[in-house]
Amino acid sequence: MAGDNRAARPALLAAALALLGALCLLSIAVGSRQIPLDEVVRALTGPRDTEVATIVWDVRLPRTVLGVLAGAALGLAGAVMQGLTRNPLADPGLLGVSAGAAFALMLAVAVAGITSLHGYIWFAFAGAVVAGVAVYVLGGLGRGGQTPVKLALAGIAVTFLLESITRGVSLVDPQVLNRYRFWSSGSLAGQNTALIGQVLPFLAVGAVLALSLAPALNNLALGDDVAASLGRRLRLVRAQGAVAVTLLAGAAVAVAGPIVFVGLVVPHAVRAVSGPDQRWLLPLTALVAPCLLLAADIVGRVAARPQEVDVGVVAAFLGAPFFIALVRRRRLAEL
């Protein structure tokens, strides 16, 4: 079976890339106004002075690009977290990045009085980074430095603390509640290319760090002792992984909100068909995860017309059954 997986991996990569391209075109075509695919192609390749071209370039394309970037970031972050902690239930939220972003957003609205997305996105990103650093520091206290269990427990503790404060403040401040409720539902709508360009460098650095971790994650899967005997510096590997996850998940969450299950579900689905080799698992996840997010966004646009269902809600609806099945598996601890 392993040999079959190795032979099929290039084909899987090509198929995932083709599926992503098809979903990108469909994402641009579907919305409150349906645009035929041939008109989408003409709008992308021709002059931009038509009404269709304006819709495509100013509304649909930024939303689609954000879906691709956020999906790839969340998928990569989830795969790295699962490999880093050897915990099959790990997702980007385990490092506290979502809770940190929400807490900083609350401070931006309640204390600084910032209400625009362009203003509080940087608070959210900074909160995600600070929370990730705090989890990494707390997980390194005591003997033995960072371990998968200590990192997970530190992430849970920081998450619960920040979420309790955020929800407490939002209950007594209606303005914070409205902003928090809108952001926490997870949405790709209403973004523009300028905002995407601002977070793109962080996503790029995080992706490079994550993909370069693949050989080390393969060694870590054999256990800390074996990885150390193979020359891996465990603290450095975990630090690099924490930085990668924080940059990827922090930027994605700050822009699109805390979209759940993408970083949990996709690495498992990819692992089932490609095998556990991180050198293939990570790039495949980076292609398949945005497919799931774009598909969820498309479903959200057509499920309740003329209104839209936020992509975070649809992604949770699609991912919850998989999560339940995953928890019920007997060999849950095996990656």
TrEMBL record:
Q: How does it sit in the membrane?
A: Multi-pass membrane protein
One GO term under biological process is: siderophore-iron import into cell
Q: Where are the transmembrane segments?
A: 64-81, 93-114, 120-139, 151-172, 192-214, 242-268, 280-299, 311-328
**Which Gene Ontology cellular-component terms appear in the entry?**
plasma membrane
Offer an example of a GO molecular function term for this protein: transmembrane transporter activity
Q: Which UniProt keywords apply?
A: Cell membrane, Membrane, Transmembrane, Transmembrane helix, Transport
**Pfam families per the record?**
FecCD
Its annotated compartments are: Cell membrane
Q: Which domain of life is it from?
A: Bacteria
Q: Which family does it belong to?
A: Belongs to the binding-protein-dependent transport system permease family. FecCD subfamily.
Q: What is this protein called?
A: Iron ABC transporter permease
